[in-house]
Amino acid sequence: MSPVRRSQTGTGNFSNGMKQELLIATKNKKKLKEIKDILSDLKLRITSLADYSSTPRIIENGNTFKKNAIIKAVKIAKSKKKLTLGEDSGICVDALGGKPGVYSSRFSGKGKNDSQNNLKLLRLLNGLENSKRKAHYRCAVAIANSKGLIAVVEGKCDGVIGFGPKGKYGFGYDPLFIIPKYKKTFAQLGPQIKHMISHRYRALSKARKTIKDYLGKQKCLKKKI
Asked: Catalytic residue at 88?
């Protein structure tokens, strides 16, 4: 079987009758799946950077989640001329002064993985009692088109860092992040519950309205032409 050919401008030969495309500025498969699941009701053709043969390099040098989300969305939208969603998220631990924050994915060093990041966090919190292990996940979502930024929103979810990894679902710090109401980690709760309460769900719920409004305006403009 011959390999699927990816185009410079999109994911293949789509006719004018196909769904509106929303390009997610990520190559993270697990993050992409969560975004697709949460935005499934929009009936969009959701693509990612992995669907393009070439994309510009994104340098995440912002000092906030919002800034990094904007960098991703605007750069890719202007390059590919597509409605683009940029997302940046991470965990902020009170006892560490809000760290790892925007460095969450590379907390234990460049090229490290989720397991190593989790182990470093546990080492830093070693000896701290439950009441001093408060943390929150934060997510920023930016929406942009070829003309620039349309909107940026945020979502937050409070929790506590456990004393060891538990659960098999999710990614990142999910095996350590306990939701007090359920007394379970995100990794134990699974996607059905996580996608109703998470930081990403809350940010994407706000972004959903922005996307709907944008698509509605575009439809009106086409009717006038």
From this structure: yes
